[in-house]
Amino acid sequence: DAPESYMKNADRENIARIEIGVDFGGNGSGHSFVATGKYKSGKVQALMSRRYMNKDYPQGIDANLLSELFLQFVEEVIQKYGMPKMVYWDNAETVLGQSITNACRKKYPSITVLPAWKIRIKDRIDYTVRLMGAGLFSFTEDCETLAQALQDAVWDSKADEDARLDDGTSDIDTLDAFEYSIERDVAQSHYNPVKGGI
């Protein structure tokens, strides 16, 4: 509700590592990239977010164009914030994931590229909320799409349990990409990726 209170400049000197989450969209949604900085202090800061919609490209976004867009994003992150260490992509789209993996390894061999775990969405949301509550979360001015996605996200009022509304009215793609960049940190909060749950 108050995005300006979470917007802060990055402290590049104290970023311990940068990790990127990638979410692949379908025809009606978008492909999203989010680079997240993890600080030595335990703070988590979204550094840069981008979303690319199929409808904005007359020829559509195929694996080659997507890889090109991703490498451009990585280059922007490197220039402004530093070299990413890890990339986690949406494991529901193996072909696109492999395309990005090959392109990234060729141009940036020092970056490790892996499929995301995609742990339970509720656990990813809970972890983000805990970061916010502890004053450990922020984002930079380069995260317009993520800031908007966080403002627009709501619970599904028709669901029997807590579930994020995913009906195309909000940007779930960018939320997923951000969560892929932080979900492995949930393991340090006693998450078991095999059994699930906190």
Task: Write structural notes for this entry.
The chain has helices at residues 63-80, 94-107, 121-133, 144-152, 172-182, and strands spanning 15-23, 30-39, 44-53, 86-89, 112-115, 137-139. It contains five helices and six strands. Strands 5-4-1-2-3-6 form a six-stranded mixed β-sheet. Helix 2 links the parallel strand 4 and strand 5 (112-115). The protein is globular and about 45 Å long. The model is unreliable at 191-198 (pLDDT under 50). By secondary structure, the chain is an alpha/beta fold. Helix 4 (144-152) packs across helix 5 (172-182).
Would you summarize the structure shown here?
With 198 residues, the chain is of the alpha/beta class.
Shape: globular
Order of helices and strands: EEEHEHEHEHH
Sheet with most strands: strand arrangement:
5-4-1-2-3-6
For the sheet with most strands, the description reads:
6 strands, mixed
Total helices: the number is: 5
Features:
5 helices, single chain, alpha/beta, 6-stranded mixed sheet, globular, disordered C terminus, 198 residues
Secondary-structure blueprint:
Blueprint: E1 15-23, E2 30-39, E3 44-53, H1 63-80, E4 86-89, H2 94-107, E5 112-115, H3 121-133, E6 137-139, H4 144-152, H5 172-182
Parallel strand pairs: 1-4, 3-6, 4-5
Antiparallel strand pairs: 1-2, 2-3
